[in-house]
User: Fold this.
Amino acid sequence: MDTKYKRNHVPEEAEIEQIVAYAVRMNTRNAFLIYPSKTTQSVTLHVGDVVARSLAFDIGIEPEEGGRLFLRSLGEALSIITKTGPGFHEL
Assistant:
């Protein structure tokens, strides 16, 4: 996981390259970019053997609600990972 403090609507190519490099270095197939933002869209990208996902923590709403929504999104993403098959349960 890597948190980015930028005002992008989607992750930049350099950010994706960086998180994929982290995942390869850590020998995992899953990577997350976290954006504290009310405008960033969640995306899922497949780069080689790595699945890179971006998730937003909505800072335009009450912190408790933003936290609940973020944790729900993260939980859904983690649930997908554990159901995807061998090797994908690594975090």
Remarks:
- The chain is about 35% helix and 25% strand.
- The beta strands are 2-3, 30-36, 44-47, 50-57.
- The chain has one domain: 2-82.
- The mean pLDDT is 84.
